[in-house]
Amino acid sequence: MRATFLDESLDDQWYEARWIVSAAATFHYVEDAVASECYVSVSGDVPTVVEGTLRMVMEDLDVWSPDELVAAVDDANDPVGRGSALIRLVIGSPIHYDAEIAERVYDGLDDPDHRVREMAIWASSYRAFPQYRSRLRELAERDPEGSVRDSAREMLEFYDQAGVAES
């Protein structure tokens, strides 16, 4: 695959470089300091071109399959590992609402450990779906941990700014 460098952006939490790989597809490389993850994605307006480009990328890189991402959440033995796996799962999830992935996000938002709840709130920012709003509102109003309440309020503000409507 031949690509032409398009641009890059950098701040204290995020680095992204983009390449044009065809008239209908752009390849993105991201270093996310907050999630402590690096990942790639392909975007574009023609789904068949994006999917084809993504298949080529997946042949050349060692990527986690959707099943491996789900298993990492389900098999995590400690709260921080579970929260980190949840963030990876959401980053690697489809751009449309997926009930299986959403179930893991809801489980994270309901986790007894406040660290997992906070990481699940953060994970919800990568795929900000209207379906998460009601649970985020509950956390913002009733969670026993002040930091979780604050994080949920901040995420709801992010949803408002991003135009994520009520479901």
Automatic annotation (TrEMBL):
Gene3D superfamilies for the chain: Leucine-rich Repeat Variant
Alphabetical list of InterPro entries matching this protein: ARM-like, ARM-type_fold
UniProt superkingdom: Bacteria
Name assigned to this protein: HEAT repeat domain-containing protein
